[in-house]
Design brief:
- This protein is of the alpha/beta class.
- It contains 11 helices and 14 strands.
- It folds into 2 domains: about 130 residues, NAD(P)-binding Rossmann-like Domain (Rossmann fold); about 160 residues, Dihydrodipicolinate Reductase, domain 2, CATH 3.30.360.10.
- Helix content is about 30%, strand content about 20%.
- The chain has a 7-stranded parallel β-sheet, sandwiched between helices.
- β13 and β14 form a beta hairpin.
- α6 packs parallel to α11.
- The relative contact order is 0.14.
């Protein structure tokens, strides 16, 4: 592709929108043509995020003022419940645009499941049926031709990268999966919330949305498809007092006489040649520091002390591989670019 892809970012004043801008600004085939915000409309991006002040970017505008006919791709970084009608309006104005949604509005395939977990009927049901689940490594072929790509949530990204190959191969008992998940406070968004204030979140660790987190049905949806049956997983997220990073520890019962080494080998074979998913050698423990600021995921496998069980640990940066980086990776696939283009930044350490 010789000409640059003109993109717009809905919700550019949020953490995921800002990280999308940070990454896209150095993508050789991307031209950032429109940035939208509500509260910050009229401001320069550098006023809202000073670390982006050195970039030559369009000013933030209300989404209604954008000429969508001039864009090739639109990234949505809006809170759930707000993307559906705006996405419909964008596609009505420009049916040829590719929508890459980083919100939760199109991830769930079933309308009833969406209504149950998000408290209202889906406002764009036809688009929900059209949407393709954007876990790049597992749905690359569908993403290539999709007009609407629903990027996974951060927790599902880490959990599914660790578990999908194992469930699909029948190496673990799909009905007995426990996921202990931890994320930095950026996972809660940039809005003012008491539980993410420094004095409340610092120097402590707390679970939240226990037994009712909205990423649970998303994980169950995709693992269920891999297993060929409806599944319920035990999933508990925790808030860690750090800005970014995510770690999931998955406790698994082995099936059919499989060993922990069999799990590691299956993951290594499935992800061989993948640019961003790295399976750790035996004995190497994945850490969030190993992927911070990057689009990489690291997965490790360990034999449990309990016979017949194994532990799989996965780490990602929740804002990059868990959101903006994966979105840009999906754009690369959709526009037939090199999948890793603009995303090869190494992790930031220390």
């Amino acid at each position: 592709m010789s000409e640059k892809i003109r993109i717009g970012v809905l919700g550019a004043s949020g953490y995921t929108g800002a990280d999308l801008v940070r990454l896209a600004a150095r993508h050789p085939k991307v031209d950032i043509a429109a940035l939208t915000a509500n509260t910050h409309a009229g401001k320069a991006m550098g006023e809202v995020f000073p670390h982006l002040a050195l970039l030559d970017l369009p000013r933030l505008t209300p989404w209604e003022e954008v000429d969508w006919t001039k864009l090739d791709a639109v990234f949505c970084g809006l809170p759930h419940g707000t993307t559906q009608e705006i996405t419909a309006a964008v596609l009505e104005a420009n049916p040829e645009a590719r929508i890459i949604d980083m919100s939760a509005d199109f991830r769930l395939r079933e309308r009833a499941t969406y209504a149950e977990w998000y408290g209202h009927e889906h406002r764009a049901p036809a688009l929900q049926e059209e949407a393709v689940y954007g876990l790049t490594e597992h749905y690359r072929a569908e993403i290539r031709d999709a007009r609407l790509i629903a990027c996974p949530g951060c927790y599902p990204t880490a959990a599914l990268l660790a578990l999908l190959p194992l469930v699909r191969a029948g190496l673990v008992v799909a009905e007995d999966i426990l996921i202990d998940a931890k994320s930095g406070v950026t996972g809660a968004g940039r809005g003012l919330k008491q539980n993410t204030l420094f004095a409340e979140a610092g120097e402590g660790l707390s679970p939240y949305s226990v037994a009712r987190h909205r990423h649970a049905p998303e994980i169950e949806q995709e693992l269920g498809r891999a297993a060929g049956q409806n599944l319920t997983v035990n999933f508990t997220p925790h808030l860690i007092p750090m800005s970014r990073g995510e770690l999931v520890t998955c406790y698994l019962r082995l099936a059919g006489g499989a060993s922990a080494e069999d799990l590691r080998q299956r993951l290594a074979e499935d992800y061989a040649g993948e640019p961003f998913v790295k399976v750790a050698p035996e004995g190497v423990v994945p850490q969030t520091q190993n992927v911070r600021g990057s689009n990489y995921a690291q997965v490790g496998v360990f034999a449990d002390r309990i016979a017949g069980r194994a532990i799989v640990v996965a780490v990602i940066d929740n804002l990059v591989k868990g959101s903006a980086g994966q979105a840009l990776q999906n754009m690369n696939v959709a526009f037939a670019l090199e999948e890793s283009e603009g995303l090869l930044q190494l992790p930031l350490f220390p």
